[in-house]
Design a protein that fits this description.
Number of strands: 0
Radius of gyration: 20 Å
Low-confidence stretches: 1-7, 193-211
Mean pLDDT: 85
Distance between the termini: 53 Å
Helix content: over 70%
Number of domains: 1
Order of helices and strands: HHHHHHHHHHHHHHHHHH
Structural class: mainly alpha
Largest sheet: none
Strand content: under 5%
Length: about 400
Amino acid sequence: MTPTPTADAEPHPSLVAILREWGRIGCVGFGGPPAHIALLRDLCVIRRRWIGEADFEHGVAATNLLPGPASTQLAIYCAWRLRGLAGAIAGGLAFIVPGLILIILLAVLFLEGSPPEWVRGVGAGAGAAVAAVAVRAGIGLIPGSRRRLRPDQHGRWIAYLLAGGIATILVGPWLVLVLLACGAIELVWSGGERHRGGLAAHAWPLLAAAAATGGTLALGWTAFKVGALSYGGGFVIIPLMQADAVDHYGWMTDGQFLNAVALGQATPGPVTQTVAVVGYAAAGVPGALLAAAVAFLPSFSFVLLGAERFDRLRTSPRPRAFLDGAGPAAIGAIIGSAVPLAAAVSETWQLVVLAAAAVLLLALRFAVVWTLLAAAAVGAVAALIGAPLPL
């Protein structure tokens, strides 16, 4: 299915044009999902008029009902609207690959061997600010979530929010079970009891994979959680990854994980590509590529298998009810992730950087990328003057 172009619309683009335009967005798409959506809208709706305003808004609404990185799914969906299966694959890869290459190169620099002290300082400075970024990301999602509430849902919304935050702090590896449980509770509460069996079918791979003790299966499971079981925006992947990467499997130290999160925020493209740094820490470049492939495959699958039904998904009460439970739990998880992230900060000067970042992000509303770059610069200076650096 493709939209019928309006009289003044440009012809649908070739695959080469999709590779070029979606690749450009992948190279300049700093700032996370809001920036990606704005860039896609400017390209497809305003400048080229390939997609109508209403169709684009429907795509935004539908992809926000899906688990995983919504802006990545929107990029795939827009390309699918224009050139079908081939367009979706070309556009999705062009959007993802530039940032993925950059973040893998940075992972090699930060995690391999003994980088110069100032490079370690850059990572330590940017990493120190990550807890404040998590709080900013979670708080930013609250107004939109509350606007969707019915009067009878406010109490449950608060309960789901608290459940997600507490689970992140206390039972990190099992967070995704809490997200699914909150979604299931709201689905049942909203009158979806007859659909409980279908929901349970989604949980059995989680229970089977949770028994993994390490290696490729464990890395694949961590990446799968990131790509297919994360609700509420890109930053919810942080608590989903941290317990596995640092505490459970020991692929990374606390400091290295903070570096990974900072790199994911400071590079263009989807935040989900942070999982490639975890993959690199676990198994080198093959691990990075495996983790990225597993994390992004669900996004392609959701769009390619379900895009023709997006209008039905957008208006169906069942996915909305599930998201009414899983969504606020994910927001709570994002905010709650600030606790283990802050606990990973080990040096006094990093605590000062964290406090300053909190002021810049939460009080003065500075942009995330510029705040991280400023924190990185402070870290480089600290390293050059001999301040202690985390391991």
